């Protein structure tokens, strides 16, 4: 005859072990895709996409440190704008390629290949990723978000 207590304890232990692989296998990455010099978005001014509709290089004279990354801006006004609401201007998925994220990979995005969708900035490694995004942005975002949520982010 099976002892109920031992059986219950065995089931509980097995259940705990079943959860273990996801915790152990969680991948840790930098919260933002950073250049070798620690710049987010490879030093581009993240507010410019929204203000001018074009990528613009930031300047070393106008930087903001936010969440462990250095954000460069073309002007002091752009830096101040970012500081009022960084979440609104920071690229989604930390500036990693949205398409790559959607297929469970972490690849740095190219700030020259970008889209704004529903008021949020998305960057891509290559033009093809942006074109695929255009064919179904909401589906790609959902897939990318699902993978992003599995990652452990460090600053």
Keywords for this entry:
single chain; alpha+beta; two-stranded parallel ribbon; 7 helices; 6 strands; 42% helix
* Count of DSSP-assigned helices: 7
Secondary-structure element sequence? HEHEEHHHEEHHE
Rounded to an integer in angstroms, the radius of gyration calculated over CA atoms is 20 Å
Cα end-to-end separation: 54 Å
Main β-sheet description: 2 strands, parallel
The low-confidence runs, each spanning 5 or more residues with pLDDT under 50, are: 7-24
Order of the strands making up the biggest sheet: 1-6
Number of domains: 1
**Anisotropy-based shape:** globular
Helix content: 40-55%
The helix-and-strand class reads alpha+beta
Q: Which percent range describes the beta-strand content?
A: 15-25%
Give the averaged pLDDT, no decimals.
89
Give the strand tally: 6
Summarize the structure in words.
With 155 residues, the protein is α+β, with helices and mostly antiparallel strands. It has one domain (28-154). Helix content is 42%, strand content 21%. It has helices spanning 4-25, 48-51, 76-84, 86-89, 98-102, 127-135, 137-148, and strands spanning 28-30, 59-66, 69-73, 110-117, 120-124, 152-154. A two-stranded parallel sheet has the order 1-6. α6 packs across α7 (137-148). The termini are far apart. Residues 7-24 have low confidence and may be disordered.
């Amino acid at each position: 005859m099976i002892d109920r207590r031992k059986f219950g304890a065995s089931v509980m232990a097995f259940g705990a072990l079943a959860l273990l692989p996801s915790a152990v296998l969680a991948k840790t990455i930098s919260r933002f895709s950073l250049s070798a010099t620690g710049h987010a978005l490879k030093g581009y001014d993240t507010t410019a996409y929204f203000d001018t509709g074009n990528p613009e290089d930031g300047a070393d004279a106008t930087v903001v440190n936010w969440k462990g990354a250095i954000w460069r801006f073309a002007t002091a006004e752009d830096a101040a704008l970012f500081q009022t609401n960084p979440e609104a201007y920071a690229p989604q998925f930390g500036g990693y390629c949205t398409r790559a994220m959607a297929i469970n990979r972490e690849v740095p995005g190219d700030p020259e290949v970008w889209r704004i969708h529903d008021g949020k900035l998305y960057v891509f490694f290559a033009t093809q990723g942006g074109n695929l995004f255009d064919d179904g942005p909401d589906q790609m975002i959902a897939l990318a978000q699902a993978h992003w949520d599995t990652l452990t982010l460090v600053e």
